[in-house]
Design brief:
mainly alpha
């Protein structure tokens, strides 16, 4: 979601953006609507272990 504000002060922009997002979440919660969350699992392997094989 893109948010545009009239302010050119970054700190103010972030505060306004945060307030809007919290208001949206409050409305969704009140309406019992849940959001899908992107879940990413990364599994790594030790490169040294591979080299020793």
């Amino acid at each position: 979601m893109y948010l545009f504000t009239k302010t050119t002060v970054w700190k103010d922009h972030l505060l306004i953006k945060e307030e809007i997002n919290f208001n949206i979440l409050e409305i969704l919660n009140r309406e019992e609507i849940s959001l899908a969350r992107q879940i990413r699992n990364l599994y790594g392997q030790n490169i040294e272990e591979e080299m020793l094989k």
